[in-house]
Amino acid sequence: xxxxxxxxxxxxxxxxxxxxxxxxxxxxxxxxxxxxxxxxxxxxxxxxxxxxxxxxxxxxxxxxxxxxxxxxxxxxxxxxxxxxxxxxxxxxxxxxxxxxx
Length: 101
Prior knowledge:
The protein is an all-alpha fold. The chain has one domain. The protein contains three helices and no strands. The protein starts with 26 loop residues before the first helix and ends in a 23-residue tail after the last helix.
């Protein structure tokens, strides 16, 4: 997906994902993609909702669910380097920085 067009958000507004619509897809590929996105959602919390939504269909994925995963991947392409990084400092304090724009 290196040559794809980036997306502005990880999921469409007023999304309509349903079970049993369209043809089914390779369940192993779908589950591997979901697993990688779940891992990635720990450092990119902005995709957590979308990943949680598409992971509900791991037992019977359809073409529309795979398209939703591809949209998340296109969103990740549009936002490189915008992740939360956690480092060990020997204490339990959290510092947060927010851009006012």
